From TrEMBL:
Keywords: Hydrolase, Lipid degradation, Lipid metabolism. One of its GO terms (molecular function) is hydrolase activity. Residues 413-433 have a biased composition (Low complexity). A motif (DGA/G) lies at residues 250-252. The lineage of its organism: Eukaryota, Viridiplantae, Streptophyta, Embryophyta, Tracheophyta. Signal peptide: none annotated. This is Patatin. Residues 409-433 are annotated as: Disordered. The keyword Cytoplasm does not apply. GO terms for biological process: lipid catabolic process. Residues 70-263 form the PNPLA domain. Pfam families: Patatin. Its EC number is 3.1.1.-.
Length: 433
């Protein structure tokens, strides 16, 4: 992979006019107009909004629910909180299903991850030589813990001189080899920000299967979504066939919380999710990575991180509104409540793991429709346990279902007549020169 000029990149060198607001507007316009209040159906177009009655029972889709996993960018814990959450969830799934070899990827139909969350998604959903995912959740947690400083760099003179991004690129190349987006076991969405088109770019398995120009090596995808623009500089890369070129920086710059993009992708991707019509047909797990202490931020990289975390909270609020009355059943958000992250200093990996374990024992914080947030009765671990039960119920239900909730494409699938599954079409096509 070729990198851009070796001099450190100041944030001022990047056009401040990132189209984040435009992207957010497009995503939530799609959610609102087509799925939130049923405006996508001609017979439901009205000028008023009618929420379901509190005692109304949700309609049950005979085909079941599509299960989506979404993972935030680094946060205060450099991705360890999300990895620890998934290790707990995988342990729960193995225990409740009586399958000691069960993997997280077995119980989700799609995954979206940004920044280090994208790296975690790639570790858990890329197919290995035996046909199974490359990493279990415990192995992925160990990988992020061992390589945290290579992946989530911090500014410093020595690191600027040594170009730490190159260390991450070598690590990803060794880990993923020649695997591409086509070699993932389920639909995968991993965003970055493309400096060529000045727009977000979402690496998508569905797009890779549709067009060769959208298939990228997984080691390039991970380098792109985790490329810190504030001191290491962007990463230049091309698709496998060489036709699409992007100059990428961290996915957290434009989409630190990819939940809204993942929901929009699934609801629009009728080729792979034919019976998924609205948010009541979804079961979503969204994982945060702790909140940074604003008072301790002294670098451009830190301010970018703070901005990303704020955007993540906004996405959580908006998604909660989109789910409406079914948010308690269909949407789970795991995040620290801020107490542990503020002012925390972790000198060793053991310190960080202990802190994330305590975050999981905290009471879960829920977004309440039009009322901000509240502390729930259950802890984060309790929420993961309850979700694990729901994931297994859905797995068992599908064994006796006639209707296929998910129809995954494979490498031999022919392109669709109309390319409607794309996540990358939210932005313009990157340079093909």
């Amino acid at each position: 992979m070729a990198a851009m000029p070796t001099s450190p990149m100041n944030l001022n060198m990047i056009d401040s006019n990132f189209e984040v607001d435009k992207l957010t507007y497009e995503i939530f316009s799609i959610l609102e107009n087509n799925f939130l209040f049923g405006y996508g159906h001609s017979d439901n177009r009205t000028n008023s909004v009618n929420f379901p009655a509190k005692d109304a029972k949700p309609a049950i889709n005979p085909a079941g629910k599509v299960r989506i996993l979404c993972i935030d960018g680094a946060g205060a814990t450099d991705g360890i909180l999300a990895a620890k959450s998934l290790a707990h969830l995988e342990s729960c799934l193995r225990r409740k299903s009586a399958d000691s070899k069960a993997r997280v990827a077995d119980f989700f139909d799609a995954v979206a991850g940004s920044g280090v969350g994208g790296v975690l998604a790639a570790l858990l959903f890329t197919r290995g030589k035996d046909g199974q995912p490359l990493f279990s959740a415990d192995e992925a947690l160990q990988f992020l813990t061992d390589n945290r400083r290579r992946i989530s760099q911090r500014p410093g003179l020595l690191r600027r001189v040594l170009r730490p991004a190159s260390k991450a690129e070598k690590l990803f190349r060794k880990t993923f080899g020649e695997c591409t987006l086509k070699d993932t076991v389920k639909p995968v969405l991993i965003p970055c920000y493309d400096l060529v088109t000045r727009a977000p770019f979402v690496f998508s398995r569905a797009d890779a299967l549709e067009m060769d120009g959208y298939d990228f090596k997984m080691h390039d995808v991970c380098a792109a979504t985790s490329a810190d623009p504030s001191f290491a500089g962007p990463t230049e890369m091309r698709s496998v066939d060489g036709s699409t070129r992007i100059v990428a920086v961290d996915g957290g710059v434009a989409m630190n919380n990819p939940t809204a993009a993942a929901i929009t992708h699934v609801l629009n991707n009728k080729h792979e999710f034919p019976f998924c019509n609205d948010v009541s047909d979804l079961l979503v797990l969204s994982l945060g990575n702790g909140e940074s202490d604003f008072n301790s931020v002294k670098s451009a990289s830190g301010f970018v991180r703070i901005a990303g975390e704020g955007a993540s909270d906004m996405v959580d609020q908006a998604v909660s509104m989109a789910f409406g009355e079914c948010r308690m059943r269909n949407y789970v958000r795991i995040q620290s409540n801020g107490v542990m992250a503020k002012g925390a200093s972790w000198k060793t990996a053991s310190d960080l793991l202990g802190a994330t374990e305590e975050m999981l024992r905290q009471k879960n914080v829920e977004s309440v429709l039009f009322k901000g947030k509240k502390v729930a009765e259950n802890s984060n671990i309790d929420k993961l346990e309850l979700l694990g039960g729901e994931l297994i119920k859905e797995q068992e239900r599908r064994k006796n279902s006639i209707l296929p909730m998910v129809v995954l494409k494979n490498n031999n699938a022919s392109p669709s007549p109309s390319r409607t599954s794309s996540a990358t079409t939210l932005s313009t096509l990157s340079s093909t020169c």
